[in-house]
Amino acid sequence: MKPRKAFSVAALLALSVTVTACGADAGDGEAPQQVTTNEQQAVDRAEEIIHQAVDAMSPQPTLERFGPATIGPCIARDDSRSDDRLQVTLFYKLTGVPGSEARNLVLQARDAWLKQGYKYNSSDEEDMSGPFPWVSMRTEPDDFWMEGITGVLDRAKGEGLATLKVISPCFLPPTKGKASGATPASPMFSVIG
């Protein structure tokens, strides 16, 4: 990978983490519904959300998982819940299509998610109308968060790399859920940005 492309992918990942950590407000002033899930259910639902965006795309990209499905600590800080909560993050590059199609793939992902009834978390017309759009959305009522991002590969040619990411709500590890009577974990993310 060329240094410039490696930097672009690294910058894309950094932007993705930053966008995910910020803007957790549901937008309508209501707290998201409590959801009880486990690791396998979270992975399955995240995969479903990715395929809702990708399966009807044209041209049809190849999904390339960037690293394994990551199970990590929940980024939410909620004093009424266990700090041992986890969440699943799935991150994919959409490959096998020209770099000039990256913009269209992100827009198609947004449109497919809107057809599913999912809500904008953050984005505006300026974000979506430029050559390298990004969108942040969430599902209701289960509160999975997803992003479609166009990373810049060649600004002069308008070539990019489309990526999709889904983050599950927080959930308790199996031993904690059973020991504590399976109290639902809060799907909220803390606002730090």
- Secondary-structure-based class equals alpha+beta
Q: Uncertain regions: pLDDT < 50 for 5+ in a row? A: 3-35, 179-193
Helical region count? Answer: 5
Q: So what's the overall shape?
A: elongated
Global Rg: 17 Å
Q: Please give the alpha-carbon distance between the first and last residues.
A: 31 Å
SS elements, strand count: 7
The whole-number mean of residue pLDDT values reads 74
Strand content: 15-25%
SSE ordering: HHEEEHEHEEEH
Instruction: Count structural domains.
Output: 1
Please sum up the structure shown:
By secondary structure, the protein is α+β, with helices and mostly antiparallel strands. The chain contains five helices and seven strands.
Labels describing this entry:
alpha+beta, 5 helices, disordered N terminus
Topology (elements, then pairings):
Blueprint: H1 3-21, H2 39-54, E1 62-65, E2 70-73, E3 86-95, H3 102-115, E4 119-122, H4 125-129, E5 134-138, E6 145-154, E7 159-167, H5 174-179
Antiparallel strand pairs: 1-3, 2-3, 3-7, 4-5, 5-6, 6-7
Helix pairs in contact: 2-3
Note down, in words, how this protein is organized.
- It is a single chain.
- By secondary structure, this protein is of the alpha+beta class.
- The chain has one domain.
- The chain is built from 5 helices and 7 strands.
- It has helices at residues 3-21, 39-54, 102-115, 125-129, 174-179; strands at residues 62-65, 70-73, 86-95, 119-122, 134-138, 145-154, 159-167.
- Strands 1, 2, 3, 4, 5, 6 and 7 form a 7-stranded antiparallel sheet that branches.
- Helix 2 (39-54) packs across helix 3 (102-115).
- The chain is elongated and about 50 Å long.
- The two termini are 31 Å apart.
